[in-house]
Amino acid sequence: MLEIRGLDVWYRHIHALDSVDLSVRAGEITALIGANGAGKTSLLNTISGLVAPRAGSIELEGSALSRAPHRIVRKGVVHVPEGRHVFAGLTVQENLLMGAYTRRKGFAGRLQEMYRLFPRLEERKKQQAGTLSGGEQQMLAICRGLISEPRVLLMDEPSLGLAPLLVREVFELIQRIRAMGITVLLVEQNAMQALAVADHAYVLENGSVVLSGTGGEVLADPNVRHAYLGAAAD
Q1: Strand blocks (E) in 28-148
Q2: How far apart are CA 51 and CA 26, in angstroms?
Q3: How far, in Å, CA of 141 to CA of 129, rounded?
Q4: What's the rounded Cα separation, in Å, for the pair 103 and 195?
Q5: Using H for helix, E for strand and C for coil, what is the string for 165-230?
Q6: Average pLDDT estimate for 40-49
Q7: What's the whole-number mean pLDDT along residues 59-85?
Q8: What is the DSSP letter of 117?
Q9: Is the per-residue pLDDT at 232 higher than 80?
Q10: Is 177 a residue whose pLDDT tops 80?
């Protein structure tokens, strides 16, 4: 569904992505793991048009993906960024309206669907987003992405900074999103959880793909277990 070929990204003298090839198949969760600075966030930012590549191609279903972020969203590729980035001074419902700026038609019906999926957000729909807990803000960020009816959802560190119980809720939600027919490209530091739910996975090191396979295959790789799972692998 999403094909990335020979992607090169530089930040001045820093080579963030080096000839990256990656495929995201329709209806699957594709996980991307690696150490801090490996290029994971750079890859998502490049797909969503926030960073311009020096070389390479990004195609959605065989057609070149626009480099303009608003056109990328209209094509159905939506980015849930690291750090949530909710609009703190707006209410929960106003945040969701902002997320639907390319899909205003039918917003009321989709809003009710989102509230069924996220009942806590309905309870807080008139509350300013900046006053929500970290877990609630993460749910709002995901919901804001979903309300635009994405075909591909790019998720950057959705479990970052959350308590273990909320981490489990987030990964259960990611699996529900896949069950809704939405394709997910997931960047996660929590490698064990990410690989456990992934249909396919890639390992990035220093801006290059060094390993790929099914989630189970990558999880079973001894080098991955040593480097990214440590004691958790036992």
Answers
A1: 29-33, 55-60, 63-64, 77-80
A2: 24
A3: 10
A4: 32
A5: HHHHHHHHHHHHHHHCCCEEEEECCCHHHHHHHCCEEEEEECCEEEEEEEHHHHHHCHHHHHHHHH
A6: 96
A7: 93
A8: H
A9: no
A10: yes
State mean pLDDT over 146-165. 92
Kindly indicate the confidence band of residue 231, based on its pLDDT and cuts at 50, 70 and 90.
very low
Q: What is the chain's Cα-based Rg?
A: 17
Contacts of 53 (CB under 8 A, 6+ apart): 7, 8, 9, 17, 46
pLDDT value of position 104: 80
* Residue 21: its H or E element: strand 14-24
| Mean pLDDT for the stretch of residues 56-72 | 95
Q: How many CB atoms lie within 10 A of CB 138?
A: 26
Per-residue CA distances from 75 to 82, 95, 152, 163, 186 (Å): 21, 21, 9, 34, 19
- Residue 234: pLDDT over 80: no
Query: Which residues, in sequence order, are CB contacts of 143 under 8 Å at separation 6+?
Result: 96, 99, 114, 117, 118, 121
Q: Phi/psi of residue 171, each to 5°?
A: -70, -30
Q: Which residue from 147, 145, 117, 143 is spatially nearest to 132, judged by alpha carbons? A: 143
Strand partners, 183: 152
Measure the CA–CA gap between 177 and 151, rounded to whole angstroms.
11
Could you read off the pLDDT of 90-105 as tens digits, one per residue?
A: 999 999 999 988 888 8
pLDDT at 230: 60
What contacts 54, CB < 8 A, 6 or more positions away? Answer: 8, 9, 10
Q: How far apart are CA 126 and CA 83, in angstroms?
A: 22
